[in-house]
Amino acid sequence: MQKKAKKYGEHYRIWAEQRRIQQNPLEHLEAENKRLIATSIRLEQENDDLSSELLATCKSKIRLQSALETAEDKAETLNGQLLHTHAALAEAEEEKARLAEEVAGLKVIL
To answer: How far is the C-alpha of 66 from the C-alpha of 104, rounded, in Å?
Structure first.
């Protein structure tokens, strides 16, 4: 089967070469021009598709960067609030301890 395929492939190549030689140079150039125009159109479409994909990727990255910055700002704000709350808790515990001592002192007096 492969021998037949090789044989037919060789016959086709010989036939195509003979046809090319017999073809009018103008016809050959017109055919080549059509092929090149088709290739150019295909490549332009591919370029448009890739540029659209790149633009969409860039927009997505910009949105993600913005979301990251927002999350970082929120984390910084929450961290500041947490530190403030810890400080307030420490003050409240000191006040509680002071009041407990005061109550104990008053109990001893009464």
So the answer is: 56
- Under DSSP, is residue 1 helix (H, G, I), strand (E, B) or coil? coil
- Tokens 């979301």 belong to which residue? 67
- Beta carbons within 8 Å of 31's beta carbon, 6+ residues apart: 23
Say if CB 20 and CB 28 are below 8 A apart: yes
Q: pLDDT, tens digit, for every residue of 23-65? A: 777 887 898 999 999 999 999 999 999 999 999 999 999 999 9
Q: Is the pTM of this model over 0.85?
A: no
Distance CA 109, CA 24 (A): 126
